[in-house]
Specification:
single chain; alpha+beta; Cathepsin B, Chain A; 2 domains; 7 helices; 33% helix; globular; cysteine-type endopeptidase activity; hydrolase; cathepsin L; protease; thiol protease
Length: 332
Amino acid sequence: MKAVILILVLVAVVQATSLKDILKAEFNAFKLKHHKTYQDASEELKRLQIFVENKKLIDTHNKRYLAGEESYEMGVNKFSDMTPEEFKTRVLTNLNPEDAQEGIDNIYNTSAMASLPSSVDWRLSGAVNPVKNQGSCASCWAFSAVGSLESHHFINSNQRVSLSEQNLVDCTRGYPYNNQGCSGGWPIRAFNYVRDNGGINTASSYPYEGQDNTCRYNKNNIGSKISAIIQIASGNETALASAVANKGPISVCLNGSQFQYYKSGVLNKPSCPHSVDHCLVVIGYGTDSVGGDYWLVRNSWGENWGENGYIRMARNRNNQCAIASYAVYPVI
């Protein structure tokens, strides 16, 4: 009997050691893929421990996903060495909803009976530029505004242009637009600036730096202009779908706290808060055989996050994560 117990203990030790080695190897692969370096051995050990806990959470979730109990898959990505609290403070931002109503020219609404296509994807018509990467600057709002404006410029002129997020980061801080640059902001304020300023520079003339700098707008390098700003009726997913289908990609701000581990599928989280901390672009919608109705959303964390830089989010399920609460688009 003692021999059997000893064998079982030895097997358990071997399995534990093997699992530890596997996780360490996965962590090393993670560091290599995402170019991670840490200031010292203590910090690296801390990040390894966080990675291991996150990997356990991901694996547990994915067992439920494979069993048909979840609508989306989780995966290791560049945020896998962060705690959820660090993810919120380093990657997301805090936005005050009271600041999202300024400078609107009109409200877009539609009848619930309006006939809409079953699916929309503006990438198919060439109206969506490649996914960009905001880096460590909390400038999602600028990428959201630029992403929508680039698409509307294409739809209006049939000309593709890459516009300058850095122009918005630098030139909408302080009065009268009161964005916070790399500390956060609202797309609607960025649109106000472009409309009032008479244009926004091209990305090639005013490249992205990922940090706050002085305003260097040059009227000789205008890439696009805005004549009006339209807000979607707040919280109305039917109106948002109509605007996406009939007008083009829409700038939205929502709660991104569930995005840290997202890999693929339709993110369906009924408990997702309605506090706002991230801005993106809705470029389409559709219905998935597993996840049901979804919004097709372009993020600004690079193509190595999510579904090649995109996320599909639950649609027609009580405005999850406040996706339809702060939706706006520019009129060229």
